[in-house]
Specification:
This is Deoxyguanosinetriphosphate triphosphohydrolase-like protein. It is built from 19 helices and no strands. By secondary structure, the chain is mainly α. The longest helix is centred in the C-terminal third of the chain and has 31 residues. It is globular and about 65 Å long.
Length: 378
Amino acid sequence: MRQARPVYAADPARSRGRRLAEPPAPTRSDFQRDRDRIIHSTAFRRLVYKTQVFLNHEGDLFRTRLTHSLEVAQLGRSIARSLGLDEDLVEAVALAHDLGHTPFGHAGQDVLDECMAGHGGFEHNLQSLRVVDHLEQRYPLFDGLNLCFETREGILKHCSRRNAELIEQAEPGGIAARFLRGGQPSLEAQLCNLADEVAYNAHDVDDGVRSGLIELEQLLDVELVREHWQASLDAHPALTGKRLLFETIRRMLSAQVYDIIDASSQAIAEAAPATADDVRCCERPLMRFSVDMRTKSTALKRFLFANLYRHSQVQATRARAEEVLRDLFAIYATDPAQLPTDFRQRPDRERACADYIAGMTDRFAIREHQRLTGKLLF
């Protein structure tokens, strides 16, 4: 028997609704409908060819933005089910959270932010919201996907005060209000933030070792890895190689999931929110790690930053990626005839250039750069 929905969980029957009202779907909740719209979007399909850490052509088994988003959704749904949260909302937010990511990962975001310095800047999280609010063109009556407030709230994970003020002007009391007045998003959105962190820490360990850029022995300096590596060997003394790595990562994931469930359950019980909106009034997120697990997770992130993301081979690839995107932006900004017609006709030329480039896959950006410059950097 399905458990009763906790009073603090998001309820699609009590959603704050869509920006443009629509009649309900006959067989799906509003959050299920959001999830389905996201999966069928063009931006979602592009994620399969967008970089996580390694470029798409560097190996068939490395994570992409698509596989990362699926892993976040899986972890999120597992935790949501244990806590009685709305799994469909968690899945929708998880699948949409990286829709605005540029080609070449964070290198692309940094370049576009630099290119857009005099035109409002660029931030991939805000771009994800632009995708679902404006850039998708699938429906006859509106731009974007016309998602529910709760899904859009979860997608907007970060927001500068300047951008929050702009969103608030257009949508008073809406999804950006918490960045101006304090407060939190729904528990489902908070959960996606944690699931995102758990997923990328784990799969970057896997991809880093698979690539040869980091050794498992190096990772044993990190407590979270070391304790689960040792537990794996204690349970299976003959385990070696990939099986040992996979068992270590599996145990790491499980430990973090159970920690989130326990720590969050305690925090929710102490705060005792009587409604989903009570959650939004809390000063701190109620979905959280324990203090001990937060310390261990942060140490792993620092290790990956120093030894994988800043590895000389990754940095060399990043430099070429930055050159590709700088060149593309400069060409489109000075010669808009090179843009597709719908982008060329927009009055905000620089933002049109950023939107077009941000929507590219890694391989399309490389091909387009070669076509326009004659240079082959990859």
